[in-house]
Design a protein that fits this description.
By secondary structure, the chain is of the alpha+beta class. It has 2 domains: about 5-75, no CATH class; about 110-180. It has 6 helices and 7 strands. It has helices spanning about 10-15, 20-25, 35-45, 50-60, 70-75, 150-165; strands at about 5, 5-10, 110-120, 125-135, 140-145, 170, 175-180.
């Protein structure tokens, strides 16, 4: 029985709330732990979007024989994280091949139209045709019907042309932009 400062190991460990086995075995890492950590960090830099499972597979492919739990432990100890996936940006090119999205500069410069579909409480589907002025964010037309087609779009746009005059551009599905030229 070991005694330190006149107190038994058992009493000292009980007083500190520590298990006795922690006093007997000195923890020592695996001899290849440092080299493995370096290889994990190197692979993480090379493959930024890979998590610890993919890094484990790459390590096994290059000759390491490691368990994914060991790689995960080192991964967490080193504070490695996979960066959050960035949201996909919408298409920035226009129908004419240019790569700058047209920004509205004044009222009646760019109008957008799109369809929205929903259903009533009894399960019947209805659609809405929404036409907005992108500069003022004003809803120019909201047409609701069970079925809407291209004729309805043309009718709504024709009515708006008569009331407000034609815009410089019309965008459909936030992708296509066409110039309207007065004849």
């Amino acid at each position: 029985m070991r005694q330190t400062l006149g107190v038994s190991e058992r009493l000292a460990c009980r007083t500190l709330g520590q298990h006795r086995s922690t006093q007997r075995k000195v923890p020592c890492g695996a001899p290849d732990e440092e080299r493995l950590t370096e290889d994990i960090i190197e692979l993480t830099r090379a493959h930024g979007r890979y998590g610890y499972r993919m890094i484990t597979g790459l390590l096994n492919n290059v000759g390491w024989h490691v368990n994914h739990k060991r790689v995960e432990r080192i991964w967490r100890r080193e504070g490695l994280k996979v960066p959050q996936k960035q949201a996909r940006k919408g298409r920035l090119w226009l129908g004419d091949g240019s790569c700058v999205r047209l920004r509205p500069e004044r009222p009646n410069h760019v109008w957008s139209y799109d369809f929205v579909q929903d259903q009533t409480h009894d399960g019947r589907i209805f659609r809405t045709l929404n036409i907005i002025d992108e500069f003022t964010k004003e809803a120019l037309v909201i047409r609701v019907d069970r079925n809407l087609n291209s004729t309805d779009v043309v009718d709504a746009l024709t009515d708006l042309f008569i009331l407000r005059g034609p815009p410089a551009f019309i965008r459909s599905d936030n992708v296509l932009c066409r110039e309207i030229r007065a004849a």
